[in-house]
Amino acid sequence: MMLVHWGNTNTKHEKSTTAYWADNWDDIPLDRRGNHPCFDPRKDLVLPAWKEPNPGAIWLKLWARPRINRTTLFYFNGNLGPAYEEGRREDTYSMGIRQKLAAEFGSTPNKQGKLGRQHTANVTVTYLKSEMYYEELASSIFCGVLPGDGWSGRMEDSMLQGCIPVIIQDGIFLPYENVLNYNSFAVR
């Protein structure tokens, strides 16, 4: 049994799903890396990433906010790739998923000053770090859980603020996904 943070089963992708050089296996010869997945859901377990807890988010019980007070339909805050300031430059970053989401629904102008093609007021897709991150999650109905360099720490953030996780990352298990019924609290 392995306890890991990245539940990549290697079943959906012929190439590495990360742009992070230390985890990118594309340049490792097959005879050195073996012909097996990095993660086997029958025996391994994905653990949540360690994040500094935010006591304010817990004391304020943002997770208990009623639906009527959740005015943002969808929320994602994170690196959106090379079209944005300080964005990761690699095309393989996030398997291109964050970049595609931003191209369609970006709510913050990219380097060319453009918003997403289908931008709407109640959808937030931004790269701007926010002092109100937990408040913004708790004001949202759905929250994006998208890969970055392989896995995403957004699952925990979403759940702890009562936001329904929307998981877009095939072939990659999230924390406890092989023992919990994700269909009962998330959209994949």
TrEMBL record:
<comment type="similarity">
    <text>Belongs to the glycosyltransferase 47 family.</text>
</comment>
<keyword id="KW-0735">Signal-anchor</keyword>
<keyword id="KW-0812">Transmembrane</keyword>
<dbReference type="InterPro" id="IPR004263">
    <property type="entry name" value="Exostosin"/>
</dbReference>
<keyword id="KW-0328">Glycosyltransferase</keyword>
<dbReference type="GO" id="GO:0016757">
    <property type="term" value="F:glycosyltransferase activity"/>
</dbReference>
<feature type="domain" description="Exostosin GT47">
    <location>
        <begin position="3"/>
        <end position="188"/>
    </location>
</feature>
<keyword id="KW-0333">Golgi apparatus</keyword>
<dbReference type="GO" id="GO:0000139">
    <property type="term" value="C:Golgi membrane"/>
</dbReference>
<dbReference type="Pfam" id="PF03016">
    <property type="entry name" value="Exostosin_GT47"/>
</dbReference>
<keyword id="KW-0808">Transferase</keyword>
<dbReference type="InterPro" id="IPR040911">
    <property type="entry name" value="Exostosin_GT47"/>
</dbReference>
<protein>
    <recommendedName>
        <fullName>Exostosin GT47 domain-containing protein</fullName>
    </recommendedName>
</protein>
